[in-house]
Amino acid sequence: MTLPARGTPAPEFVDVFLVAAEESGDRLGAALIRALRERTCGRVRFTGVGGREMADEGIASLYPIDDLPLIGFSAIPRQLPKILRLMRLTAKAVVARRPHVLVIIDSPGFTRGIARRVRAADPTIAIVEYVSPSVWAWRPGRARVMRAYIDHILALLPFEPAVHQRLGGPPCTYVGHPLVEEVKNLRPNGEEARRRLAMPPVLLVLPGSRAGEIKRLLGTFAGAVTLLYERLRSLELVVPTVPHFADAIRSATAQWPMRPRIVVDTSAKQAAFRVATAALAKSGTVTLELALAGVPMVAAYKVSAIEYVTVGRGILKRIPSIILTNLLLGENVVPELLQHDCTAENLAAALLPLFSDTPQRRRQIEAFSRLDAIMQVGSSAPAQRAADIVLAEARRALPAR
């Protein structure tokens, strides 16, 4: 077991309380649980809030997270009383349990509210935040404020530790993005690489995994696909989505000039990435997934008018790109068509050069080849690095007990 410092009595078990309020955080939490068990030879106890994957690792969640209204600018105010009630409930449970360390995972508007309450009630509980809030994109003042109640931040992006240091934030360590462990499943073998260049070309269409994103983007994507088909006359379409949107996507795409193949499970999605010629994608983590797979792309995004005025316009002024791949590479190699520029005509025009051996296609592929070094692909697993820091913070909290 790696927890106790020299001269510090080792507790029989390390107590860890985890809070993950969304599916992506639930996956991170489950991987961290497995790594902590390995690092402590099983001498660890878990309590907390999570979803299905953390439940499979033995976490009996305090409440279901599926109906937490944490997504959508307009949804949160309507559900604010419920959100605040669950914040208070969770914080009280943490304080009553008095774990060695509290790990809050993503969903910063919710989980940091819990962290602030816990720190005020019991300063002896170490608090680690897994996934840095995007202080580099908006509200940079949050970084300095977080020092009061966050002991360490586990960053998924390699440039984030330097950002927190510059802004006066808490200690921050790059532990790695979970996608680096999926690289082998995303990259083609010889036969699949040949399929990428064969006819008909394969276009991935990725309109998002949330209802609002799909509603705003799918119609525009349909127009772009129609224009592409008119130019190429031969095109195979694949639309990866999540299971609960599959029927809606299937119905919405029924009138497209060619019927797309809808894929919902992870293995089918990764297989499609391995043979794709190009992709049309909603801006988000999927652009990094595509880049690691070596798939040239065009990225797009639209938000509601009120979101654009209150948040989006400010973000676009602060950072050179909203595409993670572009930010990691330090250059805008992936075309991004946002808000008013996100039209069918613009998307089709940007996509067309990616279907042949053009400077635009070569530039993306060459830039993507640098990501392995930037993201430290092939080094220790992100969850293992995260577990080591969680245990170190638990050790630092012991003398105050």
Write up this protein.
The protein is an alpha/beta fold and 401 residues long. The protein has helices at residues 23-39, 52-56, 75-78, 80-97, 108-121, 142-146, 160-167, 183-186, 190-196, 211-232, 246-252, 266-275, 285-293, 305-318, 324-329, 344-351, 359-368, 371-375, 382-397, and strands spanning 14-20, 44-49, 101-105, 126-130, 152-155, 172-174, 202-206, 236-240, 261-263, 278-282, 297-301, 336-338. The protein folds into two domains: 14-176 and 379-400, Rossmann fold (3-Layer(aba) Sandwich), CATH 3.40.50.2000; 182-375, Glycogen Phosphorylase B (Rossmann fold). It is built from 19 helices and twelve strands. The strands form two sheets. A six-stranded parallel beta sheet has the order 2-1-3-4-5-6, sandwiched between helices. The protein is elongated, with a radius of gyration of 22 Å. The model is unreliable at 1-9 (pLDDT under 50).
Shape: elongated
In total, how many beta strands?
Answer: 12
Radius of gyration: 22 Å
Q: Poorly predicted ranges (pLDDT <50, ≥5 residues)?
A: 1-9
- Broad structural category: alpha/beta
Largest sheet: 6 strands, parallel
Quick one: CATH class of the largest domain?
Answer: Alpha Beta
Count the domains.
2
Please identify, by name, the CATH architecture of the largest domain. 3-Layer(aba) Sandwich
CATH H level, superfamily name of the largest domain = Glycogen Phosphorylase B
Based on the structure, what is the oligomeric state of the protein chains?
single chain
In CATH terms, what is the fold-level topology of the largest domain? Rossmann fold
